[in-house]
Amino acid sequence: MASWQIRNWLSNNLRRVASCSVSTQAALPKNTSAAFSLIRSQPSQYIVASLAGRKYLLTPRDLLTVPHLKDVRVGDVLALQDIHEVGSRDYTLRGDPVISPGRVKVEATVVEHTKGKMEVVFKKKRRKGYQKTIKNKHPYTRLRIGSIEFPEPSSS
Hints:
By secondary structure, the chain is α+β, with helices and mostly antiparallel strands. About 20% of the residues lie in helices and about 45% in strands.
């Protein structure tokens, strides 16, 4: 069975199970502060953040490989600014388009700069004796995601 067939079968069966399950979820929170406190009370959280032009679903202690980031060194700590979604198992809070940086704080530490696997491109023109081999390794940066923190908004 092909992988796409397995994926389709799983998604159809999961949809069927999800539609049959009984929802016992509590009432929706009244405001965003209440939503953040509900997400904070859950045992595990996740975020969807933009980094280097792409969106990534991240949890604490994840190891993320992104295209090479210039002007950062190993050990530098980056604060993730563009956070689109925060959630847990039971609750999700989406930004429009992003959640303000004062509400959610996530840091990523640069672990290493590395290169990907060797990519070989072979070019040839028939009957002309032209052969050319191009080899390349793309540079990447590895990041370790820190804990997801929800600082209390300062009331003045």
